[in-house]
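Continuing the batch. This is chain 6 of the set; chains 1 through 5 are on the previous pages. Same settings as before, nothing changed between runs. Recording input and output for traceability.
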Amino acid sequence: MKSQPIVPAELDVDDKRRAPLRGSAQLKRQTVLAVCVSLAFLLFTSLRTVPAAHAGVAVTFGRADEAVLSSGIHVVNPLASVVLFSTKTTLFEQANHVPTKEGLTVDLDVAVLFHIVPEQARDIYLSLGEDYVRIIVQPELSSAVRGLTSEADAKALYTSGRSEMQRKLKVELTSVLAPRGIVLEDVLLKAVTLPSQLTHSIELKAQAEQDSARMEFVLAKEKQEADRKSIEAKGIADFQQIVSEGISPALLQWKGIEATEKLAESTNSKVVIMGNTKDSLPVILGGESSAAPAPAATAPRSSDDRNVLLSATKEPVVLSSPAIRR
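Output for chain 6:
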């Protein structure tokens, strides 16, 4: 049986029936694609990154989330903002113009090292805000410094009392900041500028102390020199005493004989030694002379020989050249 050909009118009717089905499928595909894009966009906008050594607090329309965000990537409400707090050690420096116990006004530079407790970042945000350093750290530091310096002398700021003041400052600030979630690491007293009059007085005192120490050194040196001279004089006195005790008449006579022998060997002059006692040395030594034929002893070559000879003879000595007279 032969099939009948399809007329164009029937084809138009089928196309009209399938058209709504094709439009519905295309709409579904577009809807799914839109939903996927929306979800991807929401996911992308919900991602938040917290840098290292920071803590984050997610805030949605003024409401802070209970959970504190640690370092890393987090998924939060797309409409939420994240407030970051650094957990690193923070250095805060402050110049203070404060009075001392004597009524003097000094300039004192103070530095504090602190960090926050990450788990208490939400409490810090709710009670103090992001600018917590200006709100609590700065005024508490100023108050503590002024209170301690008003009870201390100016001298304590540049002497050993400096460490004690640092310790007291740390204790006082810790008691105030620790309940707020702020850990105080250290308090440092840096530059201290004293009044010009006090500085001048301190310099004069230091100069006087240096002069006193120098004078003590000079006196100690002079005393050592005096001790040295005293020891030297005592040694000379002891030597002279020992020598005088060892000199006897026989020794002197023997020294005289030795001196006479030495004089006899000299041909430069003539010497006559006259002695009147038995202990003296009457010796006549002479050399040839054209002026007088009398024999004579030769004179010593040096004054030391004549001194020895005079000490040995204990008698007057007549020196003549070329003639000899008594």
